[in-house]
């Protein structure tokens, strides 16, 4: 896979980066907007979201994707995110008018995890291997804990949702997503997992939980957005 960002001239503090991805028989070229100047790693996450959307759109061409607004079954699954994503979503959350309500829903979710003996595993996801993650995901789903950003079965941060959420597109009936253990869910086959690539290449690799906020948001290390994208997409 290659990523070849270039930054054409722009104005109003917004730059545009051309990204080329190629892996196996799949290729994609797109242009995304990024902040100009030196930025923190988490500030390029919106651009990564647009890249993920382009990958899913290309992979699902010709398929009948059943995901629709108001279907929140997958919003009760364990949502693994990279640290830059978690920092970005936490910053978005802090700026919202309903931040206190979101915090209350997050605190409720964390209490459910503590009461059921899963708090340690969820907060320590970075140390888990694939088998342990799969087991944790099943146990988490059994609790039916809704994402703190889910209101009336709709995602309230849909345009800023995690990469793993963007990649979860299915062609089976929505109700099957509430019973993932039955193995009846058919997901859109993707050429690769962008969320996994970003998780491996982040400055602090590993999975985190969406409901466990980071200890801090601002990173000391800053660089050009194109440089961050090269690194996160595996083309440094």
Overview of this protein structure:
A two-stranded antiparallel sheet has the order 1-2. It has a two-stranded antiparallel sheet with strand order 3-8. Helices cover 36% and strands 14% of the residues. The chain has one domain. It is globular and about 45 Å long. The longest helix is centred in the middle third of the chain and has 17 residues, at 99-115. The protein is built from eight helices and eight strands. It is α+β, with helices and mostly antiparallel strands. The mean pLDDT is 87. It has helices at residues 45-59, 83-94, 99-115, 119-123, 130-143, 163-167, 194-201, 225-232, and strands at residues 14-23, 26-35, 38-40, 80-81, 150-151, 154-155, 208-209, 222-224.
List the keywords.
single chain; 8 strands; about 35% helix; about 240 residues
Element layout with pairings:
Blueprint (H helix, E strand, L loop, with lengths): L13 E10 L2 E10 L2 E3 L4 H15 L20 E2 L1 H12 L4 H17 L3 H5 L6 H14 L6 E2 L2 E2 L7 H5 L26 H8 L6 E2 L12 E3 H8 L4
Antiparallel strand pairs: 1-2, 3-8, 4-7, 5-6
